[in-house]
Amino acid sequence: MKLLQRTSRYQFVLAIPLVIVGTAIGYGLVNMVVTSQVDEQMEHQTSRVVQQLRAGERTFNTSAPDELIAVVPGSNGPLVVKDTTLIDVEENEVVPWRIMRSAVVLPDGTAYVITLGRSLVETEDLVLGIALSMTLLLALVALGNLLLNRWLSRKLWQPFHNTLDELQGFDADGPRIPRLPDTDVDEFTTLNRALKAMMTKLRADFTAQKRFTEQAAHELQTPLAVMQGKLDQLIQSPNMGEAEAGIIDGMFQARERMGRTVANMLLLARIGNQQFPPEHVDWLAIFNDQHHSLEDLIAQRGIRYSIRQDQPCGLRLHPLLAEVLVANLLRNAVQHNIPAGTATVVIGADGFMITNTGPGLSVAPAALFERFAKGDPASPSTGLGLSMVKEIADQNGLQLAYGYAAGIHTLVVRGE
Question: What structural domains and CATH numbers belong to the chain?
């Protein structure tokens, strides 16, 4: 969810209780003011009735349907003001009334009880109308404030969104650094300047690293070729003994290992430069081809190999990278297996799984995918196989999952 949407949602959630509480408070205040006005009017009317009683008048009638006046002889008592309900005969319904009862003693000693009443039907309608009006007004204010804040936020955060749009197109090996101009907001200007400095340094470091890797790998090709030629000359010498032959064989193996390391370094550099666009791949055919290239090693170690395709795999990858990926994973499953062990490949629609028997790891599983890392320190491998698998997966949006249980190593490759 976007920041602006999250902010608007919080404002909306906060506005709902504010409207409810504001309406309740407004209703209570208006109802209190109206009730106070009704009581005040009845007090004035009681004063007039008392004056009329003292003047000798004993009959009090009112033609107003929402008023009640009753004067009856009675003893003195405290002032009573309360709300009650009476039945409206014409409408045949119960309506609310406000009643005030007070006692008065005339100069001749006669006592009367004065009862006044006012219907609250119209008063309640008035209060309810005012409350509904306040609710509507508060809702409109809250909605207007929400829309105004949304508009202001979008306008104020526009430079930030422009920066994000520019950053999404940034490529350390691209033709240019994104344009991040200064803005009217100091914080965004500081952010843009810091990002520009960071991207400039990142691009320079990336270019330097790329150039160093390529140049170092290419420069190593020449001494490796010279070493190969000299070794070929030595091995053809007629005076070479068994001891010398063993030394030369060791040098041959070291040269082959160095050659594989240089080739892998070059391939890793090309993978990091994203020089391999993804394509549709026949994964079953690639697994079969790599299996054929490992048949001698599989037979030598007595490993039982099997492959099953449940559904054609839909992972997209450059064919060369797919071959490197499968070759490294299969070779790893065979080389680090136990004699007469098993290796199984299962291909599905969203990826494939490779399982093999083998001893437990002596290092953390995450360390296997680091460059020059080895599960067995005595292994003659370069330690770049699984790191190339990890690099290929990261650059092409693939997920790697490793597990080990009951003597079985499991490595799963699937799409994100």
Answer: 3-154 (no CATH), 186-272 (1.10.287), 283-415 (3.30.565.10)
